[in-house]
Amino acid sequence: MTAALSSRSTKKAPQLALRLGALPDCAIDWCDGVGIVYLGRELRVRLGTAHTVAALEGENLHLPLPPEASARQIQDSAEAWLRQQCVAYVETLFAQNQNRQLVLVTRRSPQVLLSFAARAPWISVDDANTVRCNWRLIAQAPQTIAQHADKALRQLSALCQTNTTVDMFGALPA
Fold first, then answer.
1. Residue 172 φ/ψ, nearest 5 degrees
2. Segment 70-100, tens digit of pLDDT
3. Each residue's pLDDT tens digit, 117-130
4. Is 131 helix (H, G, I), strand (E, B) or coil?
5. Residue ranges of the domains in the chain?
6. Cα–Cα nearest to 149, from 124, 129, 127
7. Confidence bin at 173 (pLDDT 50/70/90)
8. Residues 6 or more apart from 81 whose CB is under 8 A from it?
9. For residue 102, what are the contacts with CB-CB under 8 A and spacing of at least 6?
10. Distances 120 to 24, 86, 117, 144, 145 between C-alpha atoms, Å
């Protein structure tokens, strides 16, 4: 029995070592000047108290944090800004394309919610009024985001068309 257990542990040890070894390489050193990806391009995070809210100026994202802010504060602030931008960007795409591609019964754009799952699709349709978007989508190029938004709009359109069928038998008396 112990031989079977030891053979299992030796098989898993290299996999665990690979996973643990990969963690430091992909970790970001959150400090002033760190690079983050936004709409397919790299931005530099700049700390300072000159702004009261996060502001994008050229290739710099100015965060309203003191220079001595902790790495966690910088990460939280930058990711919060990215999440807000993701929702706003996708909502704008839906509003622009709704008249062309989508005829909703409700005549309004779907609500965009964020997904934080690592393996979630970029954009998925929950129902006729809700779309779930992976918050890391904002790192992709605008063309990629537009392709995924168009696909979601087509799914919404098909969903709305199937939901608007008339129930001919519901009106009959029992």
1. -75, 145
2. 999 999 999 999 999 999 999 998 888 765 5
3. 888 889 988 887 88
4. strand
5. 35-163
6. 124
7. low
8. 54, 61, 63
9. 94, 153, 156, 157, 160
10. 24, 15, 5, 16, 15
